[in-house]
Each structure stands twice: as structure tokens, then as C-alpha cells.
Amino acid sequence: MRNAFAEEITALAQTDERIVLLAGDIGNRLFDRFKEACPNRFYNCGIAEANMIGLAAGLAMAGFRPVCYTIAPFLTYRCVEQIRVDLCYHHVPVILVGTGSGLAYASLGATHHSCEEMGMLRLLPHLNVVAPADSQEVRGALRASLQDPNPTYIRIGKKGEPVVHPSVPAFTLGKAIPMRGGHGQGESDEVALLSTGVMLPTALALADWLKARDIHASVHSFHTVKPLDENTLHRAFSTASVVATLEEHSVLGGLGGSLAEWKADRPELPARLLRFGTADEFLHKTCDTEEANAHFGLTPEALGPRIQQALAASLNVT
Amino acid sequence: MECTETISELAAVSARLRGEVIMMSHRAGTPHLGSSLSVVDILVALYGAALRIDPKAPEDPLRDRAILSKGHAAMALYAVLAEHGFFGRELIDTFATHGAALAEQPSPHCAPGVELATGSLGHGLPISLGLALAAKIRGQAYRVFTVLSDGECNEGTVWEGALLAPALKLDNLVVIVDYNKWQATGRSEEVTSLSPLVEKWRAFGWHAQEVDGHDLAALTGALATVPHPSGKPLAIIAHTVKGKGVSFMEDDNNWHYRIPKASEVTAAFLELGLPAPVIPAGSGPKKAH
Description:
The complex is a heterodimer of chains A (318) and B (289).
Chain A: H1 2-15, E1 19-23, H2 32-37, E2 42-44, H3 49-61, E3 65-71, H4 72-76, H5 80-89, E4 95-99, H6 117-121, E5 128-130, H7 135-146, E6 152-155, E7 177-180, E8 191-195, H8 200-211, E9 217-221, E10 224-226, H9 230-239, E11 242-250, H10 255-264, E12 272-278, H11 289-295, H12 300-317
Parallel strand pairs in A: 1-2, 1-3, 3-4, 4-6, 5-6, 8-9, 8-11, 11-12
Antiparallel strand pairs in A: 5-10, 7-9
Helix pairs in contact in A: 1-7, 3-5, 8-12
Chain B: H1 7-28, H2 33-50, E1 65-68, H3 74-83, H4 89-93, H5 124-138, E2 144-149, H6 156-167, E3 173-179, E4 182-183, E5 186-187, H7 188-191, H8 197-203, E6 207-212, H9 216-222, E7 234-239, H10 262-271
Parallel strand pairs in B: 1-2, 2-3, 3-7, 6-7
Antiparallel strand pairs in B: 4-5
């Protein structure tokens, strides 16, 4: 995903002279081509993320479209007040790209994990919060954010994530991408899987797991956690018996937390909400990303039975 | 804005604006009077003799930028902006009243000439770096002047910005520290080991110089050569007195929060050589801070 980001921002910057790329002393050689193509529009701001965000705000106030890039937890947790005051309160279109988000850097320990940052950031007025599923969506998210008047946070992985989309999909902020089912073809799905970020391959595998057991599940890449795609939500909660969110993020505050709030205001919608994500804890175990996901039960084999159970319960009620 | 005013004219403006600020604090019951009085001469020199801004075109992309990073001294900023015709007196008269444009601390785009919402300290300098860098990228000649407080220099982002600006060769950036030796609850030198302040900025790669922050000739002189021929960003450490201009407020940190009574306003105006003020009935200290 980070290579796709570097390629895409390099291509975009050559036609859009407003783009300035700021990095927090990361991405050794990643931006060589950008620096070559736009030598006066790349700045390494050093290991000083809060200053980088203020600097980006100043550039945006002068008409530029700055993009700040560094490791997700440092870009977000450390800088919440700068994001809130400099970007959101002043309402300037700065793009923040947090790399190695979620559990991508599982092996580096919890200092490098970001499983709470979407929950913190989505409270901030004006800020878009976006979690692309693969490298194609990274490109789509970047293009869409550059056209948007609001500041945007984009959380991406590192490298080598599975590519789900064959090409860059039509990408609109706040509009989920239907992946499977859910097209209103007459038969309604019992389950709607809403996946944000790199959980999409898991969501698709989960749909397969369910299908093998004769349970039909639609899958959406719900890449934008804020603003919510309310049309897709209304449809999912009206037609399915169970709506499940999947995210490499805490079940508190992220997509699942957000939908719990949304659903609380709409008691008339019949579906049951299940939230799949990381637990309210720091991961102390030394492990890689796959093992970390397994630790939190974020595998088709662990999630499938939980959906079966919820479906059975909802049938008993009705 | 042209440098046409003589030093004695600027001094008269300073005295008038001190009276304005004292009256604003009294009328609206708002604190930070001491911090506002210490920065008045800096702002008078800046707006009267250094800035290239047309008050009738406050959004001109080529204007110099003036950032009052110590947003708690907003009363002084509003007074100097009104003095230069960025907006009318009526905004001063309604300062900090219900629904007014001018709040106790500046909000974004609250009035012409107010560049930033700066109530939270440590934000002005990083944003100023971005504004200055934007001019460099586009080859534009505007400059950025940022006024910090000494207490504000507790904030880490001040020093993050101070480290980066020389590396970016931002000779179009000027920091002025209103060094009044106090912060909210104590001597700035005792709260953190701030001194030697000029040496700190110098060691960070700035062209740093000390001036008497109430000497308008020294201030206008220091502000006259931007970009500085050294090619470095410029740090002006302005030694000031909190509460400057009124004997019973000078260097007394109670005036960080105290609101002047009617009798104190009258006494202050007398000391400043201003005509006796007309004090609205029923105004004065009432808010608890």
C-alpha cells in the first residue's frame, strides 16, 4: 500500500502543482521519484510530527494541498490537538496518510500499533476518516481526498497486502464499494459484512465460509468511517438479519463503534449489529500481523460461528 | 502600510492602545491585561512600521502575515487592527459580548486581519513555517512575523519549529518573543530554565538579537531588515514588562487575571497621559476567572 501511495502521489503531483509532500523522517528511498519530479515540493520535517502538521496547515492556508506521511500512531495520537485546531478548526484540506496502521507493525509492539486512532479522529468536526482496503483503494482515496474541501486522514498498511480490486475502483468518500451480493437482485442476504481497511480479504473469506454453510452474506468495502455511507447502512440494516463490521481497530470507536451509535438512533431498523475488531487492550504478545489478528479472533474460522450464533438467536426471536 | 510614522507618533499610538486595552478588559470583564499591555509596543512597531498589508485587502495572497501566537493577548491585537482600519470601532465596542465577532481569544476568520485562532499555545510558529515555506516554493516576497510569549516557549512545538526553520532556509520568517518574564502562575525563569533565551534561538540556527521591547525605535530598527542578510530566520527577543505603562500593574502578575475597577481605569488613563475615560455605568469586574 505504501508503494502505491508513493507512486500515486508522484503521478498526481506532476499535474497538480498544489501538492506538497511532507514526511516525518520515514520512507527511505520511497519518495526518490517524487523528489526527482518535484524537487521543491518534498520536505522531510524530521521526527517532529506535531510541527509537521502545523506546517502543513500553513501551506494549506496559502493554497497548497499538503500531504503528511508517517507511521500512523505518531501521526495521530501524538498530534491530536494539532489535527483538531490547526486542520479541523481552521478547516484546511490537509491529507494525513498514516502508514503501518492497525496491526501492520504487530511485531514492533504496541507503540507502533494504531487500533484506537480512528475512534479518536472521527470525533473531530470536518475530518474525513478513510481506511482503504488495498493498494487500488489507496489510489482512489488519494484522488478523492485531493478533490475534497475537508481535511482527510487515510490509514494504510505497509507493503504486500493482497490486492482485491483488479483496477482502481470508482471511489467516492463516504460511499461504500459493494463487493459481493447486496445488489438488490430480489433475494435478500441474511448477513451484511461491512469491512473497513485491510480486513476486506478476511470479509470475503468469511462470506465464503458462510456460503459453504448455506448462509448468504453481502460484502462491502466500507472504506470511509466518517462520513458514514448512510444509504448503504439503511439498506443493510433493513434487509439483513445480522450486520457485522470488520476492522483492524478496536471494537470501541471505529466503524463498529460508530455504527452502534448510528443504530442507537434508529431502533426501527431490525438487524442485529455485530462488531468484530481488536479488544480494549494493548497487545503484549510478540507476534506478526497474522498471529495478532488470530489473537483477536479476526479469522473467518473464528468469526463464522459467531455469525451463525447471532443468526440463530435472531431466528428464535422472530 | 508604509513606514511613515515617526517614533513619537508611534508612542502616541501605543499610549492610546494601552488605554483601549484597559477599557476593553474593564468593560468586558476579561483577563490577560498584563500580557496584552506587554505586547502593545511590539504590535505597534510591527503594524506601524514593518508589515506590508493593505487593511483594505486583508486577504491579498501576497500580504505579509502577522500571527499573534500568544492568543491570550487578543485585546492588543484587536486594538491595533482597529487602529489601522482593518475593521471599525464597533467591533471593539462589542468585544467579548454575546454574539460578538471578537471573542476573548481569536477564532478563525473572526475579523479582517486576524490570521489564526491562537488560543492554544505552541501553534503559531509551526503554522508560520508553512506560510513562509509556501512563499519560498512560489518565489513570493511576503514575510511572516510571529509573536510568541515567553511562557509559550514551554511548548515543545515551539522548539520543533525552531529546529526546522533554519534547515528550510526560511529567511522570510521572524519570531518576536514578548519576554515579559512571567507566565500564568510564576516567573518564566523559575517554571522552566528559559534563559539564556537569545542564545537558545542562536544555537538553533537563527539570527537572534535582543531589544528593549518598549523602545519603539529599537523595535522598528530590528524589524527593518527582513529577510535578514544572514539568510537565517530572525528571532527578536524583546525584553518587556508585564502590565507595561501603568505603574500599579507593571511586573505584578496578579494582572494576568485581574480586571480593573473603574477607579483603576481612570488612574491608568491619567498615567498614560490620555483624556479621562468615559466609563459605562455598571461595567467592571464581575466575571470569576
